[in-house]
Amino acid sequence: MTNSSTSSNSTSSSRNGPGRLGWTGAVGIAIAALLIWWTLHDVSLVEVWDNMRHVQVLPFVAALTLATLTFPLRTIRWQYLLRLEGATLPFVPLWHATAIGFTATNLLPARAGEFARAYAARRMTGARFSTAFASIAVERVLDGITLVALLVIGIWAGGFGAGTSIGPNLTLGDVARASGVLFFVLLVVALLAVHWPSTALRLTRSFTNRVLPDKWSLRLTEVVEGLVSGLDALRSPSRFGAVLLWSLVVWLTGAASFWMALRAFGIETPWSATLLLQSLLAFGVAVQFSPGFFGQWEAICRITLGLYGVAAGSAVSFAFGFHLGGFFPITLLGMWSLSRAHLHLADLRRRDALDEVAPGQEMLYHEADSPASTAR
Per the structure, how many domains does the chain have? Predict the structure, then answer.
């Protein structure tokens, strides 16, 4: 399939894809706007701007470098999760898919980045969309388990009690318990599905045959087959252990970037604050209100840093400065990856992004397109 044929349908079908704004997107953006207003309502914009202008350059650059480094680290981890007929997929196309996915998260609403990443992987590697998407789901579950562990460490090391309030009728203990139970249950379900796939498929067929027409029942069963295939890493103890290890590396690198960024803004907090802040941010943006998580990110930073006695002006300056600083590198890298993969942002919003690769369909990315191959 050529680039021209891909783009010819993108305009007409883009409004039907996962990136469509719709009324839910409009409500989400309205909520994000309210959160930004709340974050800024009693803070001097002059103070925020002055703090951002006087940020320490070297620590800030180091923070942005570490934050951006988490994306190639995620790609290395993804190689353990997503396989094609048992073979490890090359780094470069998976890196492009990762960068494209996070760029879509920054520019499109409603968690479109998860679909965009799986779609890009499908188009660039030949993997099934459902398999790629399931591998991302496993990644998210293991991310959640890792973050719960780091959250508990942050609470304990910070000297906070489980009853510490972080919002109306919400405590640190509530977040830790709810997220821990959720991700543990999801992991158990995934392990059951991957170790007893025939049972999972039989139950799927039995249910869908009763409630859906034959055509849709068959299609949903095929999707479930792809999802089970994407859980394959959970079957291998060595791959499962490697994914857990890389998850820890990803999030500790992220914590290091927060530590450097806080120092860049002259904010002194204990090291455990980075674990608490990062975990609460990750859980707080699990439901995306606006492209790039604007509003949510800033409000959570202000609330969390307030637990450590950080003044609102300093916390808000850090929140906007680090958020904006981290927004641009991966977004620009993702736009470059779109170009390398011969894709357009509108392609990520197409209805057929959810379709599987048809037999014999040509991939839009080839190994010969990689920089390494070009150099050879």
Answer: 1
